[in-house]
């Protein structure tokens, strides 16, 4: 490419997550009903692995999410429950309570129909009452 008329190359950055929901019975995959303890590094039962795999979402910056959100997700540790599982060992977790989650100031919503929706960063300014 020449110096004139060249456009900057857009670098895509993916983040792969498993979406969990807070329920009275504990954390469960959004596409399942089996509770999971993320801190326990024991082998996961096959039906639970299937539910977790069905609850996966891949977000890609800049088309689906801001780079800052992708970076925040990638900075999270992979849960011990996923570490030794060949299918899940690269996934982070997003935990939604009543369909909402906040990560580094980004407000997220989960919809079974649309997946993860990003409302944007929280406004750090106080609101007037």
Q: Would you mind describing this structure in some detail?
A:
Strand 6 and strand 7 form a beta hairpin. The strands form two sheets. Strands 1, 2, 3 and 4 form a four-stranded mixed β-sheet that branches. Strands 5-6-7 form a three-stranded antiparallel β-sheet. The relative contact order is 0.20. The protein is built from three helices and seven strands; from the N terminus they run ββαβααββββ. It has 129 residues and is an alpha+beta fold. The radius of gyration is 17 Å and the shape is globular.
Q: Brief overview, please?
A:
The protein is α+β, with helices and mostly antiparallel strands.
Topology:
Elements: E1 13-23, E2 26-29, H1 46-54, E3 56-61, H2 67-75, H3 80-83, E4 92-96, E5 100-103, E6 106-111, E7 115-121
Parallel strand pairs: 1-4
Antiparallel strand pairs: 1-2, 1-3, 5-6, 6-7
Please give the number of β-strands: 7
Helix content range of the residues, please?
10-25%
Structural class: alpha+beta
Give the overall pLDDT as a whole number.
89
Radius of gyration, in Å, reads 17 Å
| Low-confidence residue ranges | 125-129
Key traits:
globular, 4-stranded mixed β-sheet, disordered C terminus, 17% helix, 129 residues
């Amino acid at each position: 490419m020449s110096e004139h008329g060249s456009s900057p190359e857009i670098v895509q950055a993916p983040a792969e997550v498993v979406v969990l929901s807070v329920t009275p019975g504990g954390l469960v995959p959004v596409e399942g009903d089996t509770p999971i303890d993320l801190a326990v590094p024991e082998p996961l039962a096959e039906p639970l692995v299937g539910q977790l795999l069905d609850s996966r979402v891949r977000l890609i910056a800049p088309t689906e999410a801001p780079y800052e959100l992708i970076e925040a997700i990638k900075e999270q540790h992979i849960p011990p429950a996923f570490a030794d599982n060949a299918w899940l060992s690269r996934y982070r977790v997003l935990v939604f309570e009543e369909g909402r989650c906040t990560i580094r100031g980004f407000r997220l919503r989960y919809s079974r129909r649309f997946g993860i929706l990003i409302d944007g960063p929280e406004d750090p300014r106080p609101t007037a009452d």
